[in-house]
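Notes from the pairing session

We agreed to fold both candidates in a single pass and log them together. This is the raw record for the first candidate, unedited. Please don't reformat it; downstream parsing expects exactly this layout.

Candidate A
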Amino acid sequence: MKTEKRQKKWYCGVTDVALLAIALFMVIGLFTRFHACGVKEDGTWMSCHWAEQTLKCAAWMFFALTVIHLLFPQAQRKQGIDFGILTTLCLTVIIPGRLISLCMMPDMACRRLMQPFALVCGVLALALSLLDMFVQWKRGGDR
């Protein structure tokens, strides 16, 4: 008798690539253009600096999860990774200004650039992640 092994095909959907692109844009954006305020004149940091550092960590986690998500072919595993992505993105949305306070003045870089950037990228990626969960659910088990 001959036993046949089912080969698992690598599956890369549109939502996989879109999530990876948003994650990469988020990481690059936070390190280049959409960052918080700089150091104060006395050499100390404002609280928005720590919000930026926490947001960078969440963006790197989001990027790492999307790379892992891209590598697995099984729909059930992709769904499990989507739950981790959703949790990370919820943190991304609530960190600046809600969990960690930002500057009081609305014209500061943290309120003008970083917070809207995190909100837009986070909500867009949340919607894509939910869409991907639905796509994986429709794909079924390990088919």
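Candidate B (folded immediately after A)
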Amino acid sequence: PIQPAIVSWLSGLDPDSVNRVLNQVSWTWANSDPKGFASFLATVGPDEIPSFTDSLLMREWVRIDPANALTWASTLPQSQALTVGGEGFSQWQLSQPDAATAWLNSLPVSDPRRQTFAKR
């Protein structure tokens, strides 16, 4: 996991610097500590996050903890949540179809992910 001192240092940088650092460390951070990375991303503005970061985080996280990865994706803005979540759900469905389908079927009928992800 990324050390708290590094997270503290990163939090103190200006938005452009955060973006540049994340361009360099996103894959490593997403791979080693996806939950911690998601927590950090929730503390910064969208202009500080490289465009590929959410999809990268989802790809890494869904391999080890699909339900929590999809819960995280649902906290993103809705259009982004459905896109990133859909990518993760598709990946999960390929590797564990029964578990992914059971999770999808457990969503409330009113949850927009249910219809969107079922089409994948």
